Amino acid sequence: MVVARRLLQKARDWFVFFQRGSQIQIQTQIRDDLRPTQEQVEALWLAIDCQNDRGGSLASYGRKYSSQSDEDGITLEVFRRIGLRRGASVEIGCGDGLENNPLILATQGWKTLWIDGKGLAFNADCSPKSFVHRQLYVTAENIVETILGGLGKLEIDSFDFFSVDIDGNDGYLETELFQYGFRPSLAIIETNNLMPPPIQYQQKYAPTHIWQGLNSEYGISLHLVAELFSRFGCQCLAINHQTDINALFVRSDHSEFFADIPKALMELYVGPLIQPFNQKYRKSKLTPGMAEQLIRSNGLVI
């Protein structure tokens, strides 16, 4: 029954997600990718019409703007609920800067620190008072010093949003940040979605680790990372539904704003399922010029 409820919730959230797009786009997606019968199309629209609420799932707010999948919508909903319109964000593993979790916040005037071993696809000095990029590989040994250096350039000493996506030592880096004393309101961390609760798994720490593509021996399981965050006063409130990989944790002092959200890990975890819709839109990214212009504008209309 638990599995059935999770799958039903997953289906309901997918319907809600696609309800936000135009009907023409959805009908085209159905025709081109699923090739259903007319009866199946009618049944789908009937189900969508019944989704007037979000079913108590934070993940159902998922929407892609500049994140890799649907993290943007969940992030914006979290900050809407807690009433934070502008703050500071940090991401480790930002890639070339055209597709990551905090880019949507940078475009709204948030002070932003990005860290990655690779360079950006646009000018990293486009907005030095509000945007800092540090190009280096982060380890458990240098993460605190690296972040403090970046925050210093922004003339701040804390941040409200943290994201880590390095496909390996993610849990070890988060532990170092917690032990130092950082407590962001929202954190997104990649998990190994092949390991459902209550499996406790974490790869061995290796400072030079690089993810080897299809290798499944990487990262940290949801159960273990939830235990880590719980020790430092944070609670898992969502797993993004498009990839079932990124876990979102909110600081416990904000719990009053999420009374309607399930808290049990097995209610949040679904695992690597075949998605009912082809995610062609995930291939779209901002151009380097657009990303630079949006960050430079500090959230102003340009």
Note down, in words, how this protein is organized.
- The protein has 302 residues and is an alpha/beta fold.
- The protein has two domains: 1-55, no CATH class; 57-272 and 288-294, 3-Layer(aba) Sandwich (Rossmann fold).
- 34% of the residues lie in helices and 12% in strands.
- It is built from ten helices and seven strands.
- The chain has a seven-stranded mixed beta sheet with strand order 3-2-1-4-5-7-6, sandwiched between helices.
- The longest helix has 18 residues, at 2-19.
- The protein starts with a helix and ends in a 6-residue tail after the last helix.
Beta strands, count: 7
**Strand order within the widest beta sheet:** 3-2-1-4-5-7-6
The low-confidence runs, each spanning 5 or more residues with pLDDT under 50, are: 17-36, 44-54, 274-282
- Helix % is 25-40%
Radius of gyration: 19 Å
**Which structural class should the secondary elements be placed in?**
alpha/beta
Strand content: 5-15%
Average pLDDT over all residues: 81
Number of helices: 10
Number of domains: 2
Question: Major sheet: size, sense and barrel closure?
Answer: 7 strands, mixed
CATH topology of the largest domain: Rossmann fold
Describe the protein's topology.
Blueprint: H1 2-19, H2 23-34, H3 38-49, H4 71-82, E1 88-92, H5 103-106, E2 111-116, E3 131-135, H6 143-154, E4 161-164, H7 170-180, E5 186-190, H8 222-231, E6 234-239, E7 246-251, H9 265-268, H10 288-296
Parallel strand pairs: 1-2, 1-4, 2-3, 4-5
Antiparallel strand pairs: 5-7, 6-7
Helix pairs in contact: 1-3
